[in-house]
What we know:
Blueprint: E1 14-19, E2 25-32, E3 35-42, E4 45-49, E5 52-53, H1 60-69, H2 79-94
Antiparallel strand pairs: 1-2, 2-3, 3-4, 4-5
Amino acid sequence: MNKENGHKETDKLKVELINLGTVNQNQVKLIKGNKEINLYFSYKTLVGVNQYASVNNWSTTTGKLLNKIEPDHKARIEHIEVLKKADELIKLVVE
C-alpha cells in the first residue's frame, strides 16, 4: 500500500509507449493490475486495439502496421468499430 495516497501498487495505471520500428508505428500499452490493453497508432491515428485492426482506409505505410496486428484482411473491422472497442476496453482498464 502506498503511504502517499492509500492505493495498492496494482491500482496504479501504467502507460508504456513502444515504438514498433518506424516513427509512424507505435503501441501504447495500458496496464492496471491484471488488466492490459494495447493501442496501435499509425502516425496519430488509432488503427488497432488488442487483436482488433481496422480495414486500411489510409496508405501502404499504415497497411504495414495493420498487417502486424491482423494479417488476415477478412478479419479486420471498420475504423469506427475499432474506436468503439478501444473505448469499451479502456473503460475496463482505467475504472
